[in-house]
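[recover] target loaded
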């Protein structure tokens, strides 16, 4: 099992919390695609997402949330 430190994640995403959110969103995105069921030892989606993030393979942008009128 590979361990990702908060510092590794923060180096790519700005802070560790944003990095985890980006990786989780990417893992959900990858989960929508069909997978090859013949592979027995496939990595978990969260591990793959964190690997991509720490390698710098993910690009993302932050969007401002629209203000709600009261």
């Amino acid at each position: 099992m590979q361990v990702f430190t908060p510092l590794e994640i923060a180096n790519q995403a700005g802070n560790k919390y944003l990095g985890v959110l980006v990786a989780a969103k990417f893992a959900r995105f990858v989960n929508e695609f069909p997978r090859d069921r013949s592979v027995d030892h496939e990595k978990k989606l969260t591990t793959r997402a964190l690997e991509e993030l720490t390698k710098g393979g993910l690009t993302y942008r932050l969007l401002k949330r629209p203000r709600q009128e009261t």
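[recover] notes: DSSP finds three helices and no strands in the chain.
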